[in-house]
Design brief:
It comes from Holothuria leucospilota (Black long sea cucumber). It is a single chain. The strands form three sheets. Strands 1-2 form a two-stranded antiparallel sheet. The protein is α+β, with helices and mostly antiparallel strands and about 170 residues long.
Length: about 170
């Protein structure tokens, strides 16, 4: 079992449901550490106080084993806000659910560092490293008109010269 020994400073956008407003400047409330987690487990949830602090057009990410608060959050925050849960007990494939919602966060405009989801790559990679190409499948069910490069240039800008067997466009 690992114990959290280091205190990490909380961001200015972190809204706590376990620390009352008059204690927000205390050392316990300013950092994320084991004492903050214990306080979070044993203190009453101040949901109403926390929801009042959420600005409009916010993106709320519920980090929990199940998106239990999604319905309540959607009813409580501004209509322009988005609520995303990262796990769901009802899903048969939580990895797919998690990655789909990470994609949703990206489409909402968040900048994500997806490299942190994977272990660092050490070069040169081993001979037994699986390739990703078998996992890529092309969808050929639709046809799209693809213009040639000539269609992007005005007619006056195209002139050609023949050099040997090569026809060179200038």
């Amino acid at each position: 079992m690992q114990v959290i020994t280091k205190t990490s400073p909380r961001s200015t956008t972190w809204i706590s449901t376990s620390v009352p407003e008059h204690q927000i400047q205390t050392e316990q409330a300013q950092g994320f550490n084991s004492s903050y987690l214990v306080n979070n487990l044993v203190s009453p949830v101040r949901f109403y106080d926390a929801v009042r602090k959420i600005p409009s057009k916010a993106i709320l990410i519920e980090i929990a084993p199940h998106g239990l608060m999604q319905a309540l959050l959607k009813r409580s925050v501004h209509a322009e806000s988005d609520c995303v849960s990262l796990m769901s007990r009802k899903e048969s494939d939580n990895l797919h659910y998690f990655l789909s919602n990470i994609g949703q966060l990206f489409t909402l405009g968040l900048t994500l560092d997806l490299k942190k989801l994977y272990p660092p790559i050490e070069y040169p990679v081993g001979a037994g490293t699986p390739m990703i190409s078998p996992g890529i499948k092309w969808d050929h069910s639709k046809e799209w008109a693809v213009p040639s490069w000539e269609e992007f240039l005005p007619d006056s800008s195209i002139s050609s010269k023949t050099i040997g067997e090569w026809n060179i466009l200038i």
